[in-house]
Design brief:
With 222 residues, this protein is α/β, with parallel strands linked by helices. The chain has 9 helices and 8 strands. The longest helix has 14 residues.
């Protein structure tokens, strides 16, 4: 009997979308309002991957240290980014065609991201991506978030799916750690946002292009 195609769970920022320009713009607006210096895009890219609270904290740490009211500035970031979460963001090459092909092949798919769910849904709507995914878990959707394996296992549970027939696709150490700790094979993209070389991530398979996912699944025996 043929098995159903594996469930595929994707990270968002740095995997499906190049969202750094919008995150950079919102963070610099916050820093400007706080009287801090602006950060370069490359500096902000190095801060992405562990959720918005960490991003904002890193932005302040890089420009003079933590403010007295970090929570207020975090709320301000959410407001600003919520207003412009997809203005400068772009899809990575091959994403739309590959998602179409994977869906046509029978894969059920989901999103597991540390981005807040409201901004996540806004980005998915902006690029007509929501139709591909049966479940979406943002960084504030569950009691835990990546790198906790509970984030990935939680989104699989939303789909009544288990880790034994699933794969995670992401770009960062948090994605790889989440998947490995959940007992889920992980495919890492060589592009994206990280502070370590892609070859050092420890993923089961490393791919250069998003369109290489089907071949990577074959290598994993899925």
């Amino acid at each position: 009997m043929n098995q159903c195609p594996p469930t595929l769970v994707f990270d968002l920022d740095g995997t499906l979308v190049h969202s750094a320009p919008d995150l950079h713009a919102a963070l610099n607006r916050v820093l400007d309002e706080a009287g801090r210096d602006a950060l370069t895009l490359d500096a902000v890219i190095a801060m992405i991957g562990d959720g918005v609270p960490t991003l904002v904290a890193r932005g302040f740490a890089a420009t003079g240290g933590p403010p007295d009211d970090l929570s207020a500035w975090l709320a301000r970031f959410h407001t600003l980014y919520g207003q412009d979460s997809a203005t400068l963001t772009t899809l990575y090459p091959g994403v739309m065609d590959t998602l179409e092909a994977l869906k046509s092949a029978g894969h059920r798919m989901a999103i597991c991201t540390n981005k807040p769910i409201e901004a996540t849904n806004a980005v998915l709507r902006s690029f007509d991506l929501a139709r591909f995914f049966d479940a979406v878990a943002g960084g504030d959707s569950l009691p835990v978030r990546k790198p906790s394996p509970g984030h990935l296992l939680g989104v699989l549970a939303m789909m009544n799916a288990g880790p034994e027939r699933a794969a995670m696709i992401g770009d960062s150490p948090a994605d790889v750690a989440t998947a490995l700790n959940a007992g889920v094979p992980v495919i890492a993209v060589a592009y994206g946002y990280r502070r370590v070389p892609a070859n050092d991530l420890g993923a089961d398979v490393l791919i250069e292009n998003f369109s290489d996912i089907s071949a990577a699944l074959t290598r994993l025996g899925l």
